[in-house]
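Protein folds are increasingly written down as discrete tokens. With that in mind, we are printing a sequence and the tokens encoding its fold.
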Amino acid sequence: MPEFKIQHVTKYSYDNLVRDSANKIILFPIVDIYQDVLKHDLIITGHPQIDTYVDYYGNEVGSFTYTEPHNMLVINSQVSVNTHPRPLPTDAVDSIAQWDELYSIKYIVPYIDFLKQEYFEGLSELFPIVEGERQTNDTPYRAALKFTEYVYKNFEYIKGVTTVETTLDEIWALKAGVCQDFAHLLMVMLRLVGIPARYVSGYICPNRDGMRGEGATHAWAEAYLPGYGWLGLDPTNNCLANEMHVRLAVGRNFSDCSPVKGVYKGSARHILEVSVSVGYEDESGLPQEKDIFTVSTFPTPEKTTVSRNSYERYMEIIQQQQQQQQQ
């Protein structure tokens, strides 16, 4: 039962004063029978009030607005987590019966949300690959393992080659990317054969054998298997998600699970820096793994809407994010 100490710092630096920074954060680890949160400290510049709610996918979400003029905003999440191993699927039920069960739930909420495909021109190329990887008598579990291995073997893990804005078609053309790209591709393959698939954001913790994405923000996929439930699959490392994977949120894709989203009033340009350190709580001698990266700067136009309470602040965040996505 490993215990991990994780620090996730998001820092916005502005070249001029800004105000009314409104943010939505998903930095609260999932709590269930496989994961316990022992302690969680959330320290934010200006100590604004954080309003929390549970979203449609069951994630705990926080929202806050820092109204004072500022040229820096830091969101520092420090959490101690215990994780527990998951049992493997027994996969004893006849494969035809399992595929029939998946067919029977494809129009049932919430599975319908995790079967909807994003627009992807490469589907015509990927579909015969999916059919070739899956054998006639494969169960959904065996098919999911084969798809995970395919992504791992056929796409190169290269940091910095993609961004959160990179499309599936660009990833398909590059045949390269990072964990979130691998997760999105695996979800496409699973959904093509009728297996509900969802995106998972979180962290992968230090392992003696070494794994891609250690000590950093990480992403993988979960597949819904009949008689079992949601099974975590990590195509970046070609393995099942286990007690070394700490889950923050689940959703249809990265956008549903982004740890921090925000807007502000002002014409200043900003630089976003994110750093994550992960270590064993009970082994102080273990070096902490770190991952630090910088996102390119860009100007954000002046916003004029002023919110009056927590609900209005939340609606302001949602509306502004929708406007930005449409630009």
